[in-house]
Amino acid sequence: MTEEVKSLILVIEDDQQTRRLLKTNLCNRGWRVIEAENGKSGLSLIKSDSPDLVILDLGLPDMDGISVTKRLRQYSDLPVLVLSARSQEQNKIMALDAGADDYLTKPFSTGELHARLQALLRRVMRTTSNMEIFQTGELKVELGRRRVFIADNEVHITPIEYRLLSILVRHAGLVVTHRQLLKEVWGNEHIHDQHYLRVYMGQLRHKLEINPARPRYLRTEVGVGYRLIDDEVG
Ligand code: CA
Q1: Inter-residue contact 157 to 165 (CB < 8 Å)
Q2: What CATH number is given to the structural domain containing 175?
Q3: Residue 171 CB: number of other CB atoms within 10 A?
Q4: Which of 2, 123, 169, 173 gives the lowest tally of CB atoms within 10 Å of its CB?
């Protein structure tokens, strides 16, 4: 997919080398880029320049990425892609739970970077266009009518399975954390009941996947959550 509109991306990252790498890559793809070296100036650029998307490093000199995410979520629904080092696993999950949309672990490939950005920008398009039908591969979900099909055959799923699936569909291509899913489907009092997810995701996979042990659509992100693979963004 190519972008019709040149999106403005804000990169908040203190490491100059990573910033330069991102800028080169994004500009080559036709995106416009603005940069901030710390959380404070990043937050003020969000207000002054209204970027379409933010790439946010978790380790910043003045405040961490989790705090930046929490602050900006108070007034903005802007898509946020978090950059994390391997040692920041727990911070990454906290940033996602605070409202970041997805993450990339350093070092990342340009392929991964672009797939994540495409998924994020599509999420925005879907939100604004009120998507009725989602389709990827042989999986089709009719959101208005709450119906699910595999290769045009209707699959009967329970209300809870449907709620789980529809959350993943709304975030297609993006990771959704265990906590987010548990909170949205079962409520705040069950955010630690990860076995619910294992049971219901298992059931969904049996209904939707050719090989539930090697899922094509409903991927596990170990220690983080689940991701519905969207063919359109790779
Ligand atoms: Ca850093």
Answers
A1: yes
A2: 1.10.10.10
A3: 23
A4: 2
- 130: phi > 0 → left, psi -120 to 50 → alpha, else beta; which? left
Distance 54 CA to ligand 1 centre (A): 15
CA nearest neighbour of 221 among 146, 168, 144, 152: 168
Instruction: Examine the pLDDT at 3 and tell me if it is beyond 50.
Output: no
CA of 14 to the centre of ligand 1 (A): 5
Measured CA to CA, the distance from residue 135 to residue 132 in angstroms comes to 10
pLDDT digits (tens, 9 = 90+) for 68-107: 999 999 999 999 999 998 888 899 999 999 999 999 999 9
Going from the Cα of 62 to the center of ligand 1, the distance in angstroms, rounded, reads 10
User: Are 162 and 77 found together in one domain?
Assistant: no
Distance 228 CA to ligand 1 centre (A): 29
Note the pLDDT of residue 234: 47
Cα R_g (the chain), whole angstroms: 18
37 Cα–ligand 1 center, Å:
9
Domain identity same for 58 and 141? no
- The string of pLDDT tens digits covering residues 98-123 is 999 999 999 999 999 999 999 998 88
Q: Which two tokens stand for residue 181?
A: 């899913």
The per-residue pLDDT for range 148-197, each reduced to its tens digit, is: 999 999 999 999 999 999 999 999 999 999 999 999 999 999 999 999 99
